[in-house]
């Protein structure tokens, strides 16, 4: 039949290879995170700071500038 799916995975069934790959990667990342303090201690101060700066966005949210319109009140209670 042309245009009809006649085999393969059923929709919604996870891909087995992807699941295994994610498990392996998760375990590798967990091991590296456990070893991170020791790894950082072995780096020179400049390199240690560079690593910390690169990891910072994953720990703290970025702060966006707040845009203000000076002609209108900052908020309204709806009591007008």
Structure characteristics:
2 helices, 80 residues, mainly alpha
Task: Produce a short descriptive summary.
The protein has 80 residues and is an all-alpha fold. It is 51% helix and 0% strand.
Structure description:
Helix content is 51%, strand content 0%. The protein is mostly helical and 80 residues long.
pLDDT below 50 for ≥5 consecutive residues: which ranges? none
Distance between the termini: 67 Å
- Overall strand count: 0
The overall average pLDDT, rounded, is: 83
Radius of gyration: 25 Å
Number of helices: 2
Our estimate of the beta-strand percent is: under 5%
Mind summarizing the main beta sheet?
Answer: none
- Sketch the topology as an H/E string, one letter per element: HH
Outline, from the CA principal axes? flat
Structural class computed from helices and strand pairing: mainly alpha
Approximate helicity band: 40-55%
Helix and strand topology:
Blueprint: H1 16-41, H2 45-59
């Amino acid at each position: 039949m042309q245009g009809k799916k006649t085999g393969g995975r059923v929709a919604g069934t996870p891909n087995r290879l992807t699941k295994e790959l994610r498990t392996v990667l998760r375990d590798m990342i967990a091991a590296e995170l456990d070893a991170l303090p020791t790894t950082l201690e072995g780096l020179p101060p400049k390199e240690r700071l560079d690593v910390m700066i690169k990891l910072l966005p994953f720990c703290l949210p970025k702060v966006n500038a707040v845009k203000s319109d000076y002609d209108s009140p900052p908020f309204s209670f709806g009591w007008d």
